[in-house]
Amino acid sequence: MTQTGAASALYDIPGPRTRKRHFVYGIVSTAVIIALVGWIIYLLVETEQFTSAKWTPFEYKGIQELLLRGLGNTLKAFAYAAVLSLALGAVLAVGRLSEHRAVRWLATLVVEFFRAMPVLVMIFFIFVALKVQPLPALVAGLTLYNGSVLAEVFRTGINSVDRGQREAAYALGMRKTQVMTFVLAPQAVRAMLPTIISQLVVALKDTSLGYLITYEEFLHAGKLIASNLDYDLPFIPVVMVISPIYIGMCMLLSWFATWVAKRERRSPKTEAVEVAPAEPGTLLPGVK
Fold first, then answer.
1. Cβ distance 85 to 203 under 8 Å?
2. Phi, psi at residue 239, to the nearest 5°?
3. Over 50: is that where the pLDDT of 29 sits?
4. Do the Cβ atoms of 87 and 117 come closer than 8 Å?
């Protein structure tokens, strides 16, 4: 079946009038977006957001070091939270898949509790009530929430593997740990990877909550610059510097998730195995 035939089997191919209408919709939408961007730029110019006085602070070495230090702290908090969230998610997923009812109920209670609890509330509770330092408090809050979400991702991925794979492994005499490690988990990774990476994007964005507990991350550094009276409150320029970097990091992770999803959707390729050339010899046992 040709590509056109396959498409027509799934939906009606748009006719000339429909294609023309869609083209008009595209032109109108593009014009609206351009007008909106132009209006925003006009407001920025009118409020003198592009004046040299508001952009001069970014030329100072101290300001640049402050921003770089904040960016480094953001990436450090994200790295800790990502690794610990994956570990916690794996442990909780194993608990939810356990055959022991007490373990399964306890893991379910932990997962549902921390999934329902707002991240900011957990971070504030750990920071204020438990008197933990800003970085551990931020990492702990992100780990508890994202680890609980990832636990459901792992559990769903394991359960999505065909039941016959599990039964065949047990029929071969494998124990449950071996079935999980060597049969179910490797197959589930293909389905889980894009969702895992997408959840890590959420963890990266939530690191910005650290500025509320005085953790010197990227957003906190921008707040310090914007609140300095000597620089005439360059709030909008700070936002225009910080926002693209945040968006760029999240888009990079999102692009990676999309790339993984597309790669995993492809048919698995097998490598050619070299076969020794046939040589004269005995073809059957006992035949000379």
1. yes
2. -60, -40
3. yes
4. no
Other beta carbons less than 10 A from residue 278's beta carbon? 7
The mean pLDDT value for 230-239 works out to 73
How many C-beta atoms surround the C-beta of residue 112 within 10 A? 12
The answer to whether residue 16 scores a pLDDT higher than 60 is: yes
Q: What helix, strand, coil percent values describe the chain, rounded to 5? A: 80, 0, 20
How far, in Å, CA of 148 to CA of 115, rounded?
A: 6
Tokens 């046939």 correspond to what residue? 278
Q: In 3-state terms, what secondary structure has residue 224?
A: helix
Residues near 66 by beta carbon (within 8 Å), at least 6 away in sequence: 221, 224, 225
Does residue 120 carry a pLDDT above 80? yes
Q: The tokens of 98 are what? A: 């356990």
What is the predicted pLDDT for the residue at 137?
Answer: 95
pLDDT digits (tens, 9 = 90+) for 134-150: 999 999 999 999 999 99
Picking from 120, 194, 125, the residue whose alpha carbon sits closest to that of residue 157 is 194
One-letter amino acid at 176 equals: K
pTM of the model: 0.76
Alpha carbon 176 to chain centroid, angstroms: 30
CA dist., res. 25 & res. 14, Å (int):
14
Structural tokens at position 257: 């998730």
Three-class secondary structure of residue 174 per DSSP = coil
Q: Which candidate, 252, 268, 281, 254, places its Cα nearest to that of 196?
A: 254
Segment 235-286, tens digit of pLDDT: 788 888 888 998 888 888 888 877 876 776 665 543 444 444 545 544 444 5
CA distances from 286 to 91, 151, 255, 282 (A): 57, 59, 61, 8
DSSP 120-152: HHHHHIIIIIS---HHHHHHHHHHHHHHHHHHH
* Size of the chain, expressed as the number of residues it contains: 288
User: Tokens 């990079």 correspond to what residue?
Assistant: 252
User: Scanning the structure block, which residue is given the tokens 């592009």?
Assistant: 50
